[in-house]
Amino acid sequence: MSNMEPLFQVKEGDCLQSYEMVFKNHYKPLVLEAFFILKDEMEAEDLVQSFFAEAWERQLLQNVNTSVKAYLHTSIRNRSLNLLEKRLNEKKKLDKYLYGKEEIVLENHLERSESANVIKSIMNELPKQRLEVVNLVYLEDKKYQEAADEMGISINSLKTHLKLAVKNLRARLNNLK
User: Fold this and answer.
1) What is the CATH number of the domain that holds 33?
2) What is the pTM of this model?
3) Are residues 90 and 135 in the same domain?
4) How many domains does the chain have?
């Protein structure tokens, strides 16, 4: 059989054998064509196989009026280039998404860092005993009695210092808003 016979038989209706002949005669060169563009052997094979499956389902080869070989190579080249373009667009979207995420994370980190600096600054304005009470109770998570014993003051004095420190901190933070 010559290269033109399978196409002729496809047009005449002896489809399955004709498609098999076209597939066998052109599969390897088409995979090679796709591989040169995609640089991935498995992807090239998948692309060619899916093309032939679609060609069979949609009876694409019956509409070919020129060289089957030229039609097949042009189709595979176009599909390969389309796949590369799709990959590139997906990469751009992913990069944009990841860049956006990095920006948000960086902005949040900066905001938290700035907030922490403001809080530290406000806390450092507290009188020494009130600052120590806040550190012991809230930052070191000590019980009132432990903190009072460590500072050498009564538990009621500790509660008073803590109450005044919290009131002062709230007022200062509310003024920043």
Assistant:
1) 1.10.1740
2) 0.48
3) no
4) 2
**Residue 3 one-letter amino acid:** N
State the amino acid at position 76 in one-letter form.
I
Q: Which domain holds residue 21?
A: 4-94
71-126 pLDDT tens trace: 898 999 999 999 999 888 888 887 776 666 666 666 676 677 777 777 778 888 88
Q: Is the same domain home to 159 and 87?
A: no
Q: How far is CA 129 from CA 12, 65, 80, in A?
A: 100, 94, 73
Backbone angles phi, psi at 126, to 5 degrees: -70, 150
Residue 108 lies in a domain: no
Length, in residues, of the chain: 177
Pairwise CA distance, residues 10 & 67, whole Å: 13
Q: Are 77 and 83 in contact (CB under 8 A)?
A: no
Cα angle, residue 87 at apex, residues 84 and 93 outer, rounded to 5° = 145
The answer to whether 77 touches 37, Cβ cutoff 8 Å, is: yes
Residue pair 3/25 in contact (Cβ under 8 Å)? The answer is yes
